[in-house]
Hints:
Layout: H1 2-38, H2 45-64, H3 67-75, H4 81-99, E1 103-105, H5 120-143, H6 150-166, H7 173-206, H8 211-238, H9 247-273, H10 280-286, H11 288-310, H12 312-323, E2 329-331, H13 334-362, H14 368-388, H15 394-426, H16 432-444, H17 447-459, H18 468-478, H19 485-517
Antiparallel strand pairs: 1-2
Helix pairs in contact: 1-2, 1-13, 2-5, 2-12, 2-13, 3-4, 3-13, 3-14, 4-11, 4-13, 5-6, 5-12, 5-19, 6-19, 7-8, 7-14, 7-15, 8-9, 8-10, 8-11, 8-14, 11-13, 11-14, 14-15, 15-18
Amino acid sequence: xxxxxxxxxxxxxxxxxxxxxxxxxxxxxxxxxxxxxxxxxxxxxxxxxxxxxxxxxxxxxxxxxxxxxxxxxxxxxxxxxxxxxxxxxxxxxxxxxxxxxxxxxxxxxxxxxxxxxxxxxxxxxxxxxxxxxxxxxxxxxxxxxxxxxxxxxxxxxxxxxxxxxxxxxxxxxxxxxxxxxxxxxxxxxxxxxxxxxxxxxxxxxxxxxxxxxxxxxxxxxxxxxxxxxxxxxxxxxxxxxxxxxxxxxxxxxxxxxxxxxxxxxxxxxxxxxxxxxxxxxxxxxxxxxxxxxxxxxxxxxxxxxxxxxxxxxxxxxxxxxxxxxxxxxxxxxxxxxxxxxxxxxxxxxxxxxxxxxxxxxxxxxxxxxxxxxxxxxxxxxxxxxxxxxxxxxxxxxxxxxxxxxxxxxxxxxxxxxxxxxxxxxxxxxxxxxxxxxxxxxxxxxxxxxxxxxxxxxxxxxxxxxxxxxxxxxxxxxxxxxxxxxxxxxxxxxxxxxxxxxxxxxxxxxxxxxxxxxxx
Length: 519
């Protein structure tokens, strides 16, 4: 009996022990930054403090932002949680260190005018407040399970601290208007493109009677489209700081890669399809490997494009302390990039699983086909938005794509339920065996055959008149909610308040820091 009680106590305290372990590793990481920065000769205490805040920010980016790259792959069971964390950590770090660039803009997206900042000290306080405010908001968002934009958190922090330091005139409100517009543009683009690809897969593969035959023809084409999108995306965004190319060159590179991938994938898909069953599960298996590559490539591109921007305030502080002035561009020392890369990897491993589950399984149910469409949508949307000059968020795109495939599934399920109900209505008074046989044939038929069967049924059946009350009742039958509404409301609310909350936090922190630093 005593042993059972001990086991119960241990089980009850296991969660707390995990939290203590995660906190302990995080603190060791911050302490490591303090020791390293302090050991680099005579350094300002402000730089040591900024390094601590930068490490805290990196941990929160890993906990929140990276989940969007691997969450769908985990939710579709293409990757295990441990496998996804390992791949994301490796490719995020590789992207940051290989293609992260040497310089970064000190004023994120030009949202404030540095000419209105009084002096270098005020600029340093401003950047510290912005960095800490962004990190605190990401921490809060992670705690409630809401995937938010790191870029918008930093933007809000710089805006709020900038206004506190230089007044309302310091802000570039045109840029802020573009950023606000991206709250709507990013998820809508992501959702529409993901839904379009999923519908195409359904029309060309899963709605066919011989799914595997259709898959052998279409999957290599879809994989080559993915290769085109990611090669173009990496050429334009991932490697833009070490090799700048125009969109035409990037598309030509992407087309070349796509042609090679098509030639490689066609025989591989044909061989693998021979061992699969002729159903959705068999088709899903053909998307597993492409989806793993997509998660890795998204992580690499995120590391190359976003990590440098995320540690931008830390690089700006380091530059201001080194040069004694305020520059529009700041060099990124290796140690600053390492803080970002290692911190993101640790944050993902320690705190990322919560957001990975949110994106991967708590919004809507995902399989490999749906997750593939989400990854493809993320790459294509960023390319389109970049060429249109729209400041979109990769987080908003990915989560919008998850909602897009979920709402498409709701629409298709509702439409199918209406078809089945029509069949029942047109078979009123007939033997149930005939109804069941017709439904079985209907389910196995292709999309075009379904339409023909319904048309013939209507032509040879008596009209069915329903009252308004009966039709409303049928609409309730048709409603299939496959997207969690509470998750939708929580995430949208978090997106809307990201910039205001991080801005208010940054303004408060700026006044606190200034109050402590002034004599």
